[in-house]
Amino acid sequence: MIKVAINGYGTIGKRVADAVAAQPDMEVIGVSKTKPSAEAFIANQRGYPLYIAEINRKPLFEEAGIEVAGDVIEMIKQADIVVDATPGGIGVKNKKLYELHDVKAIWQGGEDHEVAGFSFCSSCNYEEAKGRQFTRVVSCNTTGLCRIIHAVDEAFRVKRVRATMVRRGSDPGEVKKGPVDAIVLNPVEIPSHHGPDVQSVLPQINITTMAMIVPTTFMHMHALQMELEKEATKEDIIGIIEAHPRMGLVRGATGIKSTAELKEFAQDMGRQRADLYENCIFADSVGFVGKELFLFQAIHQEADVVVENVDAIRAMMNGAADAATSIQMTNEALGFHA
Ligand code: NAD
Questions:
Q1: Which in 10, 257, 258, 277 has the greatest CB count within 10 A?
Q2: Alpha helices in the chain (DSSP H)
Q3: Could you tell me if the CB of 12 is within 6 A of ligand 1?
Q4: How many angstroms is it from 9 CA to the middle of ligand 1?
Q5: CA distance 181 to 172
Q6: How far, in Å, is the centroid of ligand 1 from the Cα of 138?
């Protein structure tokens, strides 16, 4: 069993913990928090040993009725690999700790590529992650872009990508974030960071991205254009999406035309936390003008990177022969088939 520690039990960390716990070849040896919170109670309830960043805060947790197993260093010492899901900019500060204790570590997209020197997306570069000490799983938007761009590039060679990201304002629980009533250009400058971030995984791709933030909490929406080298049809692209283990088609017959309806669908499917791990690509939006492909895809910001973290663990621990094997194991353990 691969012993996994999750440093930072928040939006991403708590999902990674549950996904790891569901795998037949992995176990959660601990999760960490900085202060007592609802999530700390849940960690106790799920039976994940809870470690804290500053041990002098232990009485605060105990007064709240939350059991503490020790400090983060004790957790790291027991782990084969740490998934660092602390907020962006904090994770990089933990690198010295992972080096000191000679433990493997995975960071999230809030950190720069340089933190690990290697950026990961399961269906693009699993092989290169094998045996590594450090890896960064790219952000939710970059993961969604990499999956589809790489799959289309393999079949029809992508000459140029243009993408506009309409991003959620905050995660559902983040009551102090916005906007409440605005469309915010973020950033105003073009390109947004997403294009260069895609190139950290797929350096050969010519891509320019723009992004804005809107008052919603569930999912990002991408308007994506790809100019292809080779002739392709709508049916070819639909076939690629259907065959991909991390992409799903939103068919016209469902009547779904929004992220709100996708959430309802995810809940009705019985997905834990209404999580959609796959790119949700609107079948009726897939179309061509000449060799230029157009489509809309919705990306669940809290979920798509979770399954990527599980595959990154397996690759770094040499736990599966190849990407297809790991992706299938991860998906099956979560009961999800795109
Ligand atoms: P979050 O704020 O929801 O959770 C972070 C957790 O880390 C919190 O539980 C906090 O208590 C804990 N923490 C803070 N400082 C710590 C420390 N020093 N030691 C241990 N724990 C500490 O953040 P998040 O949204 O889960 O984001 C985590 C990372 O994932 C970031 O890099 C972010 O950019 C990336 N990411 C987030 C999303 C998203 O939509 N939320 C999507 C993809 C990637």
A1: 277
A2: 11-21, 38-46, 58-63, 72-78, 95-100, 122-129, 140-156, 194-201, 234-243, 259-268, 304-316, 323-333
A3: yes
A4: 7
A5: 16
A6: 14
Residues 6+ apart with CB under 8 A from 187: 193, 211
CA 26 / ligand 1 centre spacing (Å): 22
Q: Is 309 in the pocket of ligand 1 (CB under 6 A)?
A: no
Question: Any idea which fold 2-138+305-333 has?
Answer: Rossmann fold (3.40.50)
- The answer to whether residue 140 is catalytic is yes
Please report, in tens digits, the pLDDT of each residue of the chain (338 residues total): 999 999 999 999 999 999 999 999 999 999 999 999 999 999 999 999 999 999 999 999 999 999 999 999 999 999 999 999 999 999 999 999 999 999 999 999 999 999 999 999 999 999 999 999 999 999 999 999 999 999 999 999 999 999 999 999 999 999 999 999 999 999 999 999 999 999 999 999 999 999 999 999 999 999 999 999 999 999 999 999 999 999 999 999 999 999 999 999 999 999 999 999 999 999 999 999 999 999 999 999 999 999 999 999 999 999 999 999 999 999 999 998 76
Give the pair of three-digit tokens for residue 204. Answer: 């050969």
Q: Does ipTM surpass 0.90 in this model?
A: yes
Angle between helices 38-46 and 11-21 (to 10 degrees): 10
CATH superfamily to which 140-299 belongs: Dihydrodipicolinate Reductase; domain 2 (3.30.360.10)
6, 7, 11: which to mutate for ligand 1, most atoms within 8 A of CB?
11
Tell me how crowded residue 191 is: count the other CB atoms within 10 A of its CB.
15
H or E segment to which residue 121 belongs: none
CB of 184 closer than 6 angstroms to any ligand 1 atom: no
